[in-house]
Amino acid sequence: MLRIRIEGYTACSRCILFLFTRCMLAADHGTQPLTNIIVKSEPGFSPSVDAEIVGNGNDYIHNDPSGKHMRLDAHGVVKDKATGGIIYINYTGIIDISPELASILGGKEDAKSTEFGEAFIEMRFETGEEKLKDLELGTFVGAGRFLVEEGKPVTVEYKLSKVVKG
User: Fold this and answer.
1) Does the pLDDT value for residue 27 go beyond 60?
2) Residue 18: is its pLDDT beyond 50?
3) For residues 122 and 72, what is the distance between their CA atoms, to the nearest angstrom?
4) I need a surface site. Which of 57, 79, 141, 152 has the fewest CB within 10 A?
């Protein structure tokens, strides 16, 4: 299993307005910069990965007309600490906008973390590093949650699983 952490995830006020008013926005208003991505494998997963973002990534977010779901299309580049290998990551997904998540996106002071099960993604990896090439051969799906911790930026954490024959 792999874990992905995206720290400092915030929504722009125009995106929040979109959630609640369901108005159309220019495409650039739905872009969320990803400034801290960490990809780390659980013990026993092969290939072992412990990587952090290189530069910035982007998450292109749009909301369904109903205002009940967000669609994600995220891209970024991470560098593995052990091999020095560069890994391009791309995930698409859907998030249910629960009242708890709406509180987080709205920046409410009483916002609380969400549980796994409201955000789901499919992730792809590309790399030129031979020791990490097996990542490209897998199909990965994940469930996510939003973590709210006092004094820290909001973090999105995904637990990824590799789909296997069975």
Assistant:
1) no
2) no
3) 10
4) 152
